[in-house]
Amino acid sequence: QVQLVESGGGLVQAGGSLRLSCAASGLDFSYYIIDWFRQAPEKERELVATISSDGGSTSYTDSVKGRFTISRDNVKNTVYLQMNSLKPEDTAVYFCAARPYYHASKYDFWGLGTQVTVSS
Known about the structure:
The chain is mainly beta and about 120 residues long. The protein contains no helices and eleven strands. The strands form two sheets. Strands 2, 4, 5, 6, 9, 10 and 11 form a seven-stranded mixed beta sheet that branches. A four-stranded antiparallel beta sheet has the order 1-3-8-7, with no helix packed on it.
């Protein structure tokens, strides 16, 4: 059974930091591109960051560039999202999702999410 389990969310003051983890099991993790999404109340889901299957390539939405860093450990089957200089507008549920590098338009697996709340 494949699982993606997010952790590391919580309540933090503006300017603070959190590190989210996305732990995968039951899949050939090194075959998968991993994306972090977020969704705030009454807003559409937003792609935040992406990391390639081997970790050699990353991308970010403009609003988090310079503040967030995505990384992965293919031995631990885990992807991380280091979030620094957090702002109230970063408040959302953060999800990770996995898509295979050989069929990158198709998301195979999603996590349930972890809540991040940034107070002003």
